[in-house]
Amino acid sequence: MARFNKVQVLTAMKETGMVPVFFNSDIDICKQVIKACYMGGVRVFEFTNRGDFAHELFGDLVKWAAKECPELILGAGTVIDAPTAVLYLQLGANFIVGPNFNPEIAPVCNRRLVPYSPGCGSVSEMSDAQAAGCDVTKVFPAGNVGGPSFVKNVLGPLRWSNIMVTGAVSPDEENLTNWIKAGVLCVGMGSKLFPKDVIAAKNWQYITDKCIEALGYIAKARS
């Protein structure tokens, strides 16, 4: 069962403005990365369902995070079907994210009052997802769909939308400022926040520093 309710999840997404996205088959690396982000001010983290036995890692991380990062809201991403959503909800996922919109996932999450943020690439997809009860829709792949201008234009007719963008997001001031000024609720960030050489070198302080820096740019852009 989720430790955080829907209001807490959506509020944390809005207040921090950034959701790191990460997967590694080594649970110790996952713990170090999550802890580094947490120390950098991150309060919402997406663990991606991309490797074999990923759900087993997730279950262990949920229990670990409850003790080591008590304010962290941990969710599962790359969820493309309802059975997988159920699996992660049973393991304690506080939110579900997908690269696509699957209308079968929405009622599964709605019954538990757990946010489902599906990937959308058009106004029609976003509107359909909202009608299904999705409070936050993810524009993906954000860079290919149209970038900040797409978000800005969508918010014209769908001005009530809460948009998260993933893809083509990097932890530098210009990039983050462009997304925030376009009107996104938050950004999702993966490889640009966790370079392979940094993970290989186990330079966890780099990740903490980069999170502090990125969150600072987001706060500045909002002000």
| CATH homologous superfamily caption | Aldolase class I
CATH topology: TIM Barrel
Q: What's the CATH class, please? A: Alpha Beta
The CATH architecture would be Alpha-Beta Barrel
Structure overview:
With 223 residues, the protein is an alpha/beta fold. The protein has one domain: Aldolase class I (TIM Barrel, Alpha-Beta Barrel), CATH 3.20.20. 50% of the residues lie in helices and 14% in strands. It contains 11 helices and 9 strands. A 7-stranded parallel sheet has the order 3-2-1-9-8-7-6, with helices on both faces. Helix 2 crosses helix 11 (204-222). It is globular. The model has no long low-confidence stretch (mean pLDDT 97).
Main features:
alpha/beta, 7-stranded parallel beta sheet, 11 helices, 50% helix, carbohydrate metabolism, Aldolase_TIM
Summarize the structure.
The chain is of the alpha/beta class.
Record the SSE blueprint:
Elements: H1 6-16, E1 18-22, H2 27-39, E2 44-48, H3 54-68, E3 73-77, H4 82-90, E4 96-97, H5 105-112, E5 116-117, E6 119-120, H6 123-131, E7 137-139, H7 142-145, H8 147-154, E8 163-166, H9 173-182, E9 186-189, H10 196-201, H11 204-222
Parallel strand pairs: 1-2, 1-9, 2-3, 4-5, 6-7, 7-8, 8-9
Protein name: 4-hydroxy-2-oxoglutarate aldolase/2-dehydro-3-deoxyphosphogluconate aldolase
Family: Belongs to the KHG/KDPG aldolase family.
GO molecular function, one term: lyase activity
